[in-house]
Amino acid sequence: MTWTAPKVERTVGLAELGTLSERQLLEGWLTWHRETLLAKCAGLDGAQLARTAVEPSNLTLLGLVRHMAEVERFWFRRSLAGEDVGEVFTAPGDGDEGIEGVDAAHAERDFARYRAETGACDAAAAAQPLDADFTSAHDIRLSLRWVYVMMIQEYARHNGHADFLRERTDGATGD
């Protein structure tokens, strides 16, 4: 049987985000964007997820899922928490932070790795106050608060890409 990306059950609604504390708001928006990316993939099989649909770009929905796992790991685990962990997907030949090197046959595995990574990132962030800070590779002091905002914008940008990819793949629009 061919694996397809599962339907996403939303855990955060936009209407709920209006009256939350700062931390809950940041966590809520990040969760909403994560779920949006997965919703863009729901119901598609590995071949559809690995399809480049907006030529000449090499972006794929599966590549975006892999990329976001890499970006989350870099900011939450490696930078903020100081964990000594390598990349999730990036290896010789994998290209730009997981975007390249996709293989339709590994879609289920890649989705499982993404979910495991977001769980590990949530755990790393939960252990820190919003004001927890670290020094970036460019010698700039950054906080967990900054990481949340940066991740929200990163997902927002890539979810826009996912909109186009999904529509070009099977005509589906909306989240």
Structural features, described:
The chain has 175 residues and is mainly α. It has a domain at 61-159. 52% of the residues lie in helices and 3% in strands. It has five helices and two strands; from the N terminus they run H-H-H-H-E-E-H. The chain has helices at residues 22-41, 46-49, 61-80, 107-126, 144-170; strands at 133-135, 141-143. A two-stranded antiparallel ribbon has the order 1-2. Strand 1 (133-135) and strand 2 form a beta hairpin. The longest helix has 27 residues, at 144-170. It is globular and about 45 Å long.
Question: What secondary-structure arrangement, pairings included, does this model have?
Answer:
Blueprint: H1 22-41, H2 46-49, H3 61-80, H4 107-126, E1 133-135, E2 141-143, H5 144-170
Antiparallel strand pairs: 1-2
Features:
5 helices; 175 residues; mainly alpha
Report a brief summary of the structure.
With 175 residues, the protein is mainly α. The protein is 52% helix and 3% strand.
Which structural class do the helices and strands define? mainly alpha
Element string (H = helix, E = strand) = HHHHEEH
Strand order of the largest sheet: 1-2
Percent helix range:
40-55%
List low-pLDDT spans.
Answer: none
Q: How much of the polypeptide forms β-strand, as a percent range?
A: under 5%
Number of E-state strands: 2
The radius of gyration computed from the alpha-carbon positions, rounded to a whole number of angstroms, is 16 Å
Average pLDDT for all residues: 93
Please give the alpha-carbon distance between the first and last residues: 26 Å
- Main sheet record: 2 strands, antiparallel
Shape: globular
Q: Number of helical segments? A: 5
